[in-house]
Amino acid sequence: MDHHHTHSTNPRELQMARSMCWHCQSEVSGEYFCDRCVKVQPVSKETDYFTCFGLPRRLTIDPNKLESKFYELSRAFHPDFYQNKSEMEQTISLGNAATLNSAYRTLRDPIQRAEYLLDLEAGSVKDIRTTPPADLFEEIIELQETLDAYRETDRPSEAGQTLRAQLQTKRTALEQRQQDMDTQLQLLFSGWDALQDRGAATDHTRSERERILKRMRDILSNRTYVKNIVNDLVATIG
Amino acid sequence: MAYSDKVVDHFNNPRNMGSFKKDEDGVGTGMVGAPECGDVMKLQIKVQNDTIVDAKFKTFGCGSAIASSSLATEWLKGKTIEEAQKIKNTDIVQELNLPPVKIHCSVLAEDAIKAALADYQKKADVK
């Protein structure tokens, strides 16, 4: 197996770097415990969060399965079991537990999971940073200015009521847009997973992967802007 | 994490907050955002005879983003277009003593300057 292609188009080829057990020097390849001497092995820095849980790089994850795997591994690295072990083993198990905690927090949330995947795949996609959506910024700045104006008006006055009604309409429209974005994301997630399941890297799947990742990047960043402005609206007009 | 005194000062007394009319003669507008945090920044310059005579900003975001854009408008005033191109985000980081997690705010300010300059050039070229 070729280990130089970490950005391989087939995620199932991605494995933890082969290395040696720190204790008995026999070969280990990503297992948490050495086959021969059963000593705990450190998670390597190159290991991504999906691999930590033995998962393929898919965007649909069964939360129950993820949780039980997390508990299983947390038990395996629990400090209680290492009290009488060597200092090296204590350090390694503590480090592994910390990594797994971050991995779990990232993967259990669908949005964070997608953002993490984008970071992982960014190297394989050209121009993943897309052009900023200027019209969205314009809309947001205009809306923020209306919000400022509303904050400064006498709220029960007629002017205040008019502004409030305007903001309310905007809020409904933006919340609808949030829902639409989430629906689109779901479709992209399924599209990505279908490509991952197919495996074989043809020119077509490669360009399709790029298309999905870029589209995801776009929606995820727009989503953040929209979320912020909706939060401001909710905080101001309730 | 605490903000540096300079950030607090710009945040409490923002310089040059406001806006020009976008279609006004000699005005260049840059609008940028940081997808990581959702901050949005609008920075405008007013140019006469190749010199920036005035600059304004509106930023909706964290204290560091507001301070970065406030500082940027101060620096822009009186500079030529060429000099303005040379403002780097690292200059802003240094001046405001921004911590690593807030460096993207200074990047945002640099992007906004570049976008405003590009917009001005584009409008000038059309004429």
**Strand tally of chain B, please?**
3
What radius of gyration of chain B results from the CA coordinates?
14 Å
Q: Specify the biggest β-sheet of chain B.
A: 3 strands, antiparallel
Query: Can you list the strand order of the major beta sheet of chain A?
Result: 1-2
Helical percentage of chain B = 40-55%
In N-to-C order, the SSE pattern of chain B is HEEEHHHH
Instruction: Write the H/E string of chain A, N to C.
Output: EEHHHHHHH
Features:
heterodimer; A: 238 residues; mainly alpha; Helix Hairpins; 2 domains; two-stranded antiparallel ribbon; 62% helix; elongated; B: 127 residues; alpha+beta; Sufe protein. Chain: A; three-stranded antiparallel sheet; 5 helices
What does this structure look like?
The complex is a heterodimer of chains A (238) and B (127). Chain A has 2 domains: 3-108, Helix Hairpins (Orthogonal Bundle), CATH 1.10.287.110; 129-237. Chain A has 7 helices and 2 strands; from the N terminus they run E-E-H-H-H-H-H-H-H. Chain A has helices at residues 49-52, 63-76, 87-108, 110-121, 134-152, 158-198, 203-237; strands at residues 19-20, 27-28. In chain A, strands 1-2 form a two-stranded antiparallel sheet. The N and C termini of chain B lie far apart (49 Å). Chain B is globular. Helix content of chain B is 46%, strand content 22%. Chain B has a 3-stranded antiparallel beta sheet. Chain B has a single domain, classed as Sufe protein. Chain: A. Chain B has helices at 5-12, 63-76, 81-85, 89-96, 103-126, and strands spanning 27-34, 39-48, 51-60. The A-B interface holds A 132, 134, 136-138, 140-141, 144-145, 220-221, 224-225, 227-228, 232 and B 31-33, 35-40, 42, 58, 60.
